[in-house]
Amino acid sequence: MKVTSVETIVVDNIKPYRGGSKWLFLRLHTDEGIVGLGEKPTGHARDLRSQIHLIHTLCDQFLIGKDPTQIEKIWQEAYGSRHDFRHPGLDMTPALSAIEIACWDIVGKAANQPIYNLLGGRCHEKLRAYAYMPYNAASESPERAGEVAQQLVEEGNSACKLDPFVPFFPAPQDYSLKRIRHVGRIFECIRNAVGDELEVGIGTHGQFSTSGAIRVAKALEQYDPYWFEEPVSPENIDEMARVAAHTSIPIASGERLVTKFEFAQLLMKQAAQIIQLDVAQCGGILEAKKIAGIAEAHYAMIAPHMYVGPIAAAAAVQLDTCSPNFLIQEYNGDRLHRDIFVDPITFEEGFITPPSGPGLGVELNEEVLNKHRSND
Question: Is the dihedral of CA 376, 361, 289, 273 positive or negative?
Protein backbone atom coordinates (compact mmCIF):
# COMPACT_ATOMS: atom_id res chain seq x y z
CA MET A 1 0.00 0.00 0.00
CA LYS A 2 1.24 3.49 -0.88
CA VAL A 3 0.06 7.01 -0.12
CA THR A 4 -0.96 8.67 -3.37
CA SER A 5 -2.10 12.13 -2.28
CA VAL A 6 -2.98 14.39 0.64
CA GLU A 7 -6.10 16.53 0.81
CA THR A 8 -6.47 19.41 3.29
CA ILE A 9 -9.89 20.70 4.35
CA VAL A 10 -10.61 23.85 6.34
CA VAL A 11 -13.86 23.82 8.31
CA ASP A 12 -15.61 26.85 9.75
CA ASN A 13 -16.54 25.97 13.30
CA ILE A 14 -19.71 27.27 14.95
CA LYS A 15 -19.97 29.43 18.04
CA PRO A 16 -18.74 29.22 20.77
CA TYR A 17 -15.83 27.95 18.60
CA ARG A 18 -14.76 25.08 20.83
CA GLY A 19 -11.49 23.77 19.47
CA GLY A 20 -10.86 26.93 17.46
CA SER A 21 -12.80 29.05 15.01
CA LYS A 22 -11.46 26.93 12.14
CA TRP A 23 -10.51 23.26 11.98
CA LEU A 24 -7.83 21.93 9.65
CA PHE A 25 -8.46 18.34 8.55
CA LEU A 26 -6.44 16.19 6.22
CA ARG A 27 -7.22 13.05 4.28
CA LEU A 28 -4.49 10.70 3.13
CA HIS A 29 -5.46 8.74 0.02
CA THR A 30 -3.87 5.38 -0.82
CA ASP A 31 -3.63 3.21 -3.90
CA GLU A 32 -5.84 0.62 -2.16
CA GLY A 33 -8.69 3.07 -1.68
CA ILE A 34 -8.26 3.37 2.10
CA VAL A 35 -8.45 6.97 3.31
CA GLY A 36 -6.98 8.13 6.62
CA LEU A 37 -8.22 11.12 8.62
CA GLY A 38 -6.02 13.53 10.56
CA GLU A 39 -6.28 16.98 12.08
CA LYS A 40 -3.86 19.78 12.92
CA PRO A 41 -4.94 22.01 15.83
CA THR A 42 -5.23 25.64 14.75
CA GLY A 43 -6.09 27.50 17.94
CA HIS A 44 -7.85 30.63 16.78
CA ALA A 45 -5.73 31.31 13.70
CA ARG A 46 -7.71 32.86 10.88
CA ASP A 47 -5.23 32.46 8.04
CA LEU A 48 -4.21 28.81 7.75
CA ARG A 49 -2.22 29.05 4.51
CA SER A 50 1.16 28.57 6.16
CA GLN A 51 -0.15 25.58 8.14
CA ILE A 52 -1.60 23.99 5.02
CA HIS A 53 1.68 24.57 3.19
CA LEU A 54 3.62 22.88 6.00
CA ILE A 55 1.41 19.77 5.85
CA HIS A 56 1.85 19.47 2.09
CA THR A 57 5.61 20.05 2.38
CA LEU A 58 5.96 17.24 4.93
CA CYS A 59 3.76 14.88 2.91
CA ASP A 60 5.52 15.60 -0.38
CA GLN A 61 8.94 14.97 1.13
CA PHE A 62 8.28 12.11 3.52
CA LEU A 63 4.97 10.41 2.73
CA ILE A 64 3.77 10.46 -0.88
CA GLY A 65 4.68 7.13 -2.48
CA LYS A 66 5.52 5.60 0.91
CA ASP A 67 3.87 2.77 2.85
CA PRO A 68 1.67 4.45 5.53
CA THR A 69 2.00 1.42 7.82
CA GLN A 70 5.68 2.28 8.45
CA ILE A 71 4.72 4.92 10.98
CA GLU A 72 7.84 4.91 13.12
CA LYS A 73 10.15 5.25 10.12
CA ILE A 74 8.08 8.03 8.56
CA TRP A 75 7.97 9.91 11.87
CA GLN A 76 11.70 9.63 12.50
CA GLU A 77 12.60 10.74 9.00
CA ALA A 78 10.26 13.72 9.09
CA TYR A 79 11.34 14.75 12.57
CA GLY A 80 15.06 14.30 12.23
CA SER A 81 16.31 14.31 8.65
CA ARG A 82 16.31 18.07 8.20
CA HIS A 83 18.22 20.22 10.64
CA ASP A 84 15.53 22.90 10.84
CA PHE A 85 12.79 20.32 11.38
CA ARG A 86 14.48 18.69 14.40
CA HIS A 87 13.30 21.49 16.61
CA PRO A 88 9.98 20.63 18.21
CA GLY A 89 7.39 23.33 18.54
CA LEU A 90 3.69 24.05 18.29
CA ASP A 91 3.78 24.32 14.50
CA MET A 92 5.89 21.57 12.94
CA THR A 93 5.13 18.91 15.56
CA PRO A 94 1.32 19.30 15.33
CA ALA A 95 1.56 19.06 11.53
CA LEU A 96 3.52 15.83 11.92
CA SER A 97 0.93 14.67 14.48
CA ALA A 98 -1.89 15.19 11.99
CA ILE A 99 -0.11 13.10 9.37
CA GLU A 100 0.74 10.39 11.90
CA ILE A 101 -2.86 10.18 13.12
CA ALA A 102 -4.05 9.74 9.52
CA CYS A 103 -1.52 6.94 9.01
CA TRP A 104 -2.85 5.15 12.10
CA ASP A 105 -6.39 5.53 10.78
CA ILE A 106 -5.26 3.81 7.57
CA VAL A 107 -3.52 1.02 9.49
CA GLY A 108 -6.58 0.39 11.65
CA LYS A 109 -8.88 0.31 8.65
CA ALA A 110 -6.55 -2.07 6.80
CA ALA A 111 -6.47 -4.39 9.84
CA ASN A 112 -10.20 -3.88 10.53
CA GLN A 113 -9.34 -3.00 14.13
CA PRO A 114 -9.62 0.13 16.27
CA ILE A 115 -6.24 1.73 16.84
CA TYR A 116 -6.31 0.93 20.54
CA ASN A 117 -6.36 -2.78 19.72
CA LEU A 118 -3.11 -2.32 17.78
CA LEU A 119 -1.49 -0.60 20.77
CA GLY A 120 -2.14 -3.22 23.42
CA GLY A 121 -5.91 -3.45 23.50
CA ARG A 122 -8.72 -1.94 25.52
CA CYS A 123 -7.90 -1.15 29.15
CA HIS A 124 -11.07 0.86 29.80
CA GLU A 125 -14.67 0.17 28.82
CA LYS A 126 -15.57 3.82 29.26
CA LEU A 127 -13.57 6.97 29.80
CA ARG A 128 -14.19 9.45 32.56
CA ALA A 129 -14.32 13.01 31.25
CA TYR A 130 -14.49 16.41 32.90
CA ALA A 131 -16.71 19.37 32.16
CA TYR A 132 -16.06 23.10 32.39
CA MET A 133 -17.53 25.55 34.82
CA PRO A 134 -17.95 28.79 32.86
CA TYR A 135 -15.91 31.61 34.36
CA ASN A 136 -18.89 33.94 34.50
CA ALA A 137 -20.68 31.44 36.74
CA ALA A 138 -18.02 31.84 39.39
CA SER A 139 -17.44 35.54 38.78
CA GLU A 140 -21.11 36.39 39.38
CA SER A 141 -20.80 35.12 42.94
CA PRO A 142 -19.31 32.17 44.78
CA GLU A 143 -22.86 31.02 45.53
CA ARG A 144 -23.56 30.85 41.79
CA ALA A 145 -20.56 28.54 41.41
CA GLY A 146 -22.17 26.20 43.92
CA GLU A 147 -25.39 26.18 41.90
CA VAL A 148 -23.54 25.34 38.69
CA ALA A 149 -21.62 22.58 40.47
CA GLN A 150 -24.92 21.07 41.59
CA GLN A 151 -26.18 21.20 38.01
CA LEU A 152 -23.03 19.46 36.74
CA VAL A 153 -23.46 16.66 39.27
CA GLU A 154 -27.12 16.24 38.33
CA GLU A 155 -26.01 15.86 34.69
CA GLY A 156 -23.78 12.96 35.68
CA ASN A 157 -20.43 14.71 35.87
CA SER A 158 -17.95 13.73 38.53
CA ALA A 159 -15.25 16.30 37.70
CA CYS A 160 -14.91 19.79 36.31
CA LYS A 161 -12.36 22.53 35.82
CA LEU A 162 -12.60 26.27 36.27
CA ASP A 163 -10.23 29.14 35.51
CA PRO A 164 -10.76 31.49 38.46
CA PHE A 165 -7.62 33.62 38.19
CA VAL A 166 -7.91 36.39 35.62
CA PRO A 167 -6.53 38.15 33.73
CA PHE A 168 -4.18 35.53 32.27
CA PHE A 169 -1.66 38.17 31.20
CA PRO A 170 0.86 39.55 31.92
CA ALA A 171 2.90 36.59 33.05
CA PRO A 172 4.33 36.09 35.55
CA GLN A 173 2.08 37.96 37.92
CA ASP A 174 0.82 37.77 41.47
CA TYR A 175 -2.83 38.05 42.45
CA SER A 176 -4.09 40.08 45.36
CA LEU A 177 -5.06 38.50 48.65
CA LYS A 178 -8.59 39.71 47.96
CA ARG A 179 -8.69 37.71 44.72
CA ILE A 180 -7.22 34.62 46.39
CA ARG A 181 -9.84 34.82 49.18
CA HIS A 182 -12.58 35.16 46.56
CA VAL A 183 -11.42 32.00 44.82
CA GLY A 184 -11.34 30.28 48.21
CA ARG A 185 -15.00 31.20 48.71
CA ILE A 186 -15.80 29.77 45.26
CA PHE A 187 -14.33 26.43 46.33
CA GLU A 188 -16.07 26.62 49.69
CA CYS A 189 -19.45 27.15 48.02
CA ILE A 190 -18.83 24.26 45.63
CA ARG A 191 -17.97 21.95 48.51
CA ASN A 192 -21.03 23.12 50.46
CA ALA A 193 -23.24 22.43 47.44
CA VAL A 194 -21.97 19.04 46.29
CA GLY A 195 -19.63 17.80 49.00
CA ASP A 196 -17.14 15.32 47.58
CA GLU A 197 -19.30 14.38 44.57
CA LEU A 198 -17.38 16.67 42.20
CA GLU A 199 -13.63 16.90 41.69
CA VAL A 200 -12.62 20.46 40.82
CA GLY A 201 -9.41 21.24 38.98
CA ILE A 202 -7.77 24.67 39.10
CA GLY A 203 -7.25 25.74 35.51
CA THR A 204 -4.51 28.30 34.96
CA HIS A 205 -2.28 29.24 32.06
CA GLY A 206 1.21 29.51 33.53
CA GLN A 207 0.61 33.07 34.64
CA PHE A 208 1.84 32.89 38.26
CA SER A 209 5.20 33.72 39.68
CA THR A 210 6.68 30.81 41.61
CA SER A 211 6.05 32.45 44.98
CA GLY A 212 2.55 33.50 43.91
CA ALA A 213 1.69 29.96 42.84
CA ILE A 214 2.90 28.55 46.16
CA ARG A 215 0.84 31.13 48.04
CA VAL A 216 -2.31 30.25 46.09
CA ALA A 217 -1.75 26.52 46.54
CA LYS A 218 -1.42 26.95 50.31
CA ALA A 219 -4.68 28.90 50.46
CA LEU A 220 -6.64 26.33 48.42
CA GLU A 221 -5.22 23.06 49.75
CA GLN A 222 -8.01 22.78 52.34
CA TYR A 223 -10.54 22.28 49.49
CA ASP A 224 -8.63 19.37 47.94
CA PRO A 225 -8.51 20.57 44.31
CA TYR A 226 -8.15 17.81 41.72
CA TRP A 227 -5.08 19.53 40.36
CA PHE A 228 -3.28 22.84 39.94
CA GLU A 229 -2.77 23.18 36.20
CA GLU A 230 0.37 24.79 34.79
CA PRO A 231 0.86 27.11 37.77
CA VAL A 232 3.98 28.63 36.22
CA SER A 233 5.08 28.93 32.63
CA PRO A 234 6.10 25.50 31.25
CA GLU A 235 9.42 26.71 29.86
CA ASN A 236 11.09 26.48 33.27
CA ILE A 237 10.50 22.97 34.56
CA ASP A 238 12.68 23.58 37.62
CA GLU A 239 10.35 26.31 38.87
CA MET A 240 7.30 24.12 38.32
CA ALA A 241 9.05 21.42 40.31
CA ARG A 242 9.59 23.94 43.09
CA VAL A 243 5.85 24.62 43.21
CA ALA A 244 5.14 20.89 43.25
CA ALA A 245 7.50 20.42 46.20
CA HIS A 246 5.60 23.04 48.23
CA THR A 247 2.05 21.74 47.90
CA SER A 248 -0.04 18.62 48.34
CA ILE A 249 -2.20 19.61 45.33
CA PRO A 250 -1.19 17.50 42.30
CA ILE A 251 0.44 19.58 39.58
CA ALA A 252 -0.88 19.08 36.05
CA SER A 253 1.02 20.15 32.95
CA GLY A 254 1.82 19.20 29.38
CA GLU A 255 -0.65 20.76 26.96
CA ARG A 256 2.10 23.02 25.56
CA LEU A 257 4.87 20.40 25.51
CA VAL A 258 5.83 18.25 22.54
CA THR A 259 7.63 14.92 22.05
CA LYS A 260 8.79 12.38 24.59
CA PHE A 261 11.94 14.39 25.25
CA GLU A 262 10.20 17.37 26.85
CA PHE A 263 7.84 15.16 28.86
CA ALA A 264 10.74 13.05 30.12
CA GLN A 265 12.26 16.15 31.71
CA LEU A 266 8.93 17.14 33.27
CA LEU A 267 8.60 13.72 34.91
CA MET A 268 12.24 13.21 35.82
CA LYS A 269 12.27 16.50 37.74
CA GLN A 270 8.98 15.63 39.50
CA ALA A 271 7.37 18.82 38.23
CA ALA A 272 4.00 17.22 37.50
CA GLN A 273 2.17 13.99 38.21
CA ILE A 274 -0.87 14.57 36.00
CA ILE A 275 0.27 14.72 32.39
CA GLN A 276 -1.91 16.71 30.01
CA LEU A 277 -0.38 15.64 26.73
CA ASP A 278 -2.20 16.63 23.55
CA VAL A 279 -2.19 13.77 21.02
CA ALA A 280 -2.62 16.19 18.12
CA GLN A 281 0.27 18.39 19.21
CA CYS A 282 2.86 16.24 20.95
CA GLY A 283 3.78 14.10 17.93
CA GLY A 284 0.80 11.85 17.28
CA ILE A 285 -0.67 8.65 18.65
CA LEU A 286 2.51 6.56 18.91
CA GLU A 287 4.49 9.43 20.43
CA ALA A 288 1.66 9.98 22.91
CA LYS A 289 1.68 6.28 23.78
CA LYS A 290 5.42 6.52 24.50
CA ILE A 291 4.85 9.57 26.70
CA ALA A 292 2.10 7.72 28.56
CA GLY A 293 4.55 4.86 29.11
CA ILE A 294 7.19 7.20 30.54
CA ALA A 295 4.51 8.65 32.82
CA GLU A 296 3.48 5.17 33.92
CA ALA A 297 7.06 4.41 34.92
CA HIS A 298 6.92 7.49 37.20
CA TYR A 299 3.52 6.45 38.64
CA ALA A 300 2.00 9.49 36.92
CA MET A 301 -1.41 9.62 35.28
CA ILE A 302 -2.49 11.07 31.95
CA ALA A 303 -5.36 13.52 31.52
CA PRO A 304 -5.11 14.46 27.84
CA HIS A 305 -5.76 17.98 26.65
CA MET A 306 -8.61 18.31 24.15
CA TYR A 307 -9.09 21.89 22.98
CA VAL A 308 -9.25 20.60 19.41
CA GLY A 309 -11.61 19.58 16.65
CA PRO A 310 -13.40 16.23 16.40
CA ILE A 311 -10.75 14.16 14.56
CA ALA A 312 -8.01 15.06 17.04
CA ALA A 313 -10.47 14.32 19.84
CA ALA A 314 -11.11 10.88 18.34
CA ALA A 315 -7.35 10.25 18.37
CA ALA A 316 -7.18 11.14 22.08
CA VAL A 317 -9.93 8.63 22.80
CA GLN A 318 -7.88 5.89 21.10
CA LEU A 319 -4.91 6.66 23.36
CA ASP A 320 -7.03 6.82 26.50
CA THR A 321 -8.63 3.46 25.85
CA CYS A 322 -5.34 1.53 25.72
CA SER A 323 -3.44 3.41 28.46
CA PRO A 324 -3.49 1.80 31.92
CA ASN A 325 -2.58 5.09 33.60
CA PHE A 326 -5.45 7.03 32.03
CA LEU A 327 -7.09 9.30 34.63
CA ILE A 328 -9.59 11.55 32.90
CA GLN A 329 -10.19 13.19 29.53
CA GLU A 330 -10.84 16.84 28.87
CA TYR A 331 -13.99 17.14 26.77
CA ASN A 332 -14.80 20.29 24.79
CA GLY A 333 -17.20 18.82 22.27
CA ASP A 334 -20.12 20.78 20.88
CA ARG A 335 -22.88 20.21 18.32
CA LEU A 336 -20.63 20.33 15.25
CA HIS A 337 -18.20 17.90 16.90
CA ARG A 338 -21.07 15.40 16.85
CA ASP A 339 -22.81 16.29 13.60
CA ILE A 340 -19.69 16.14 11.45
CA PHE A 341 -19.39 12.36 12.01
CA VAL A 342 -21.69 9.71 10.61
CA ASP A 343 -21.57 7.98 13.99
CA PRO A 344 -20.45 10.49 16.63
CA ILE A 345 -18.39 9.58 19.66
CA THR A 346 -20.75 8.99 22.57
CA PHE A 347 -20.47 11.29 25.60
CA GLU A 348 -23.09 10.74 28.29
CA GLU A 349 -23.27 11.46 32.01
CA GLY A 350 -19.61 12.31 32.35
CA PHE A 351 -18.21 9.39 30.33
CA ILE A 352 -17.01 8.81 26.77
CA THR A 353 -17.66 5.42 25.19
CA PRO A 354 -14.74 4.42 22.93
CA PRO A 355 -15.87 3.60 19.37
CA SER A 356 -15.42 0.00 18.22
CA GLY A 357 -15.00 0.69 14.51
CA PRO A 358 -11.69 0.33 12.66
CA GLY A 359 -9.02 3.01 12.78
CA LEU A 360 -10.18 6.12 14.59
CA GLY A 361 -13.66 4.65 14.57
CA VAL A 362 -15.20 7.72 12.91
CA GLU A 363 -16.12 8.81 9.39
CA LEU A 364 -16.95 12.29 8.17
CA ASN A 365 -20.50 13.13 7.25
CA GLU A 366 -19.90 14.59 3.78
CA GLU A 367 -23.12 16.60 3.75
CA VAL A 368 -22.28 18.35 7.02
CA LEU A 369 -18.63 18.72 6.02
CA ASN A 370 -19.52 20.44 2.75
CA LYS A 371 -21.94 22.76 4.54
CA HIS A 372 -19.18 23.99 6.83
CA ARG A 373 -16.23 24.05 4.40
CA SER A 374 -14.42 27.36 4.61
CA ASN A 375 -14.39 29.61 1.58
CA ASP A 376 -11.28 31.45 2.80
Answer: positive
